[in-house]
């Protein structure tokens, strides 16, 4: 594999692990602010990001390169409200989409068509994750305008967490 592609994938490995830790920190915040359903959903999201990281690690190693374990940024730990948490989820997913696009571009420049093919899975995943983050935020904005709305929103997040936990992992 070309060095530039290896470097770019290692950078994405770090980014996926940082995403996992950010969602983990958000889950902890929800857990301690009366939103157990949102916490359950975000704990699962944290696990999924870790799985995205591991998938990249295996890919690099299988192709004869070497995935590296890197120093990570400390994630944010406090938010002003549940709305801020889920707004940050959306903003973060949009940032990850940009990172995946940039990674794809490196592969195209380096003519690494196998890796660009491998990245299709991540691109599809980003489409789904951004769409889900938008839907969740819309629901939360609606819920926050009615009395008891946040309680019901949190219950809905609990059932989304159950569905996600039951889904086969990719
Ligand atoms: Fe939600 O992002 Fe990983 O890839």
Description:
With 170 residues, this protein is mainly α. It has helices at residues 3-31, 36-62, 82-109, 113-143, 149-166. The longest helix is centred in the C-terminal third of the chain and has 31 residues, at 113-143. It starts with a helix and ends with a helix. The mean pLDDT is 96. The site of hydroxy diiron-OXO moiety has 9 residues, from helix 1, helix 2, helix 3 and helix 4.
Layout of strands and helices, then pairs:
Blueprint: H1 3-31, H2 36-62, H3 82-109, H4 113-143, H5 149-166
Helix pairs in contact: 1-2, 1-3, 2-5, 3-4, 4-5
Order of helices and strands: HHHHH
Termini separation comes to 25 Å
Q: State the low-pLDDT regions, or none.
A: none
Mean pLDDT: 96
The residue fraction in helices comes out at over 70%
Number of strands: 0
Question: Globular, elongated, flat, extended or rod-shaped: what is the shape?
Answer: elongated
The description of the largest β-sheet is:
none
Supply the helix-strand structural class. Answer: mainly alpha
Radius of gyration: 17 Å
Number of helices in the DSSP assignment: 5
Q: Could you tell me the strand content as a percent range? A: under 5%
Bound molecules: hydroxy diiron-OXO moiety
């Amino acid at each position: 594999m070309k060095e530039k592609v290896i470097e770019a994938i290692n950078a994405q490995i770090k980014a996926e692990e940082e995403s996992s830790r950010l969602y983990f920190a958000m889950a902890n915040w929800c857990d301690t602010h009366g939103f157990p359903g949102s916490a359950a959903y975000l704990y699962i999201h944290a696990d999924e990001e870790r799985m995205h990281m591991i998938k990249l690690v295996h890919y690099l190693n299988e192709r004869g390169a070497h995935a590296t374990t890197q120093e990570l940024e400390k994630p944010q730990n406090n938010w002003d409200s549940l709305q801020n948490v889920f707004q940050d989820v959306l903003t973060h997913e949009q940032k990850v989409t940009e990172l995946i696009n940039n990674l794809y571009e490196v592969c195209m420049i380096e003519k690494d068509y196998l890796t660009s093919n491998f990245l299709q899975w991540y691109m599809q995943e980003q489409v789904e994750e951004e769409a889900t983050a938008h839907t969740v935020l819309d629901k939360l904005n609606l819920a926050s305008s009615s009395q008891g709305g946040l309680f019901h929103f949190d219950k809905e997040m609990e059932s989304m967490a159950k569905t996600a936990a039951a889904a086969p992992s990719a």
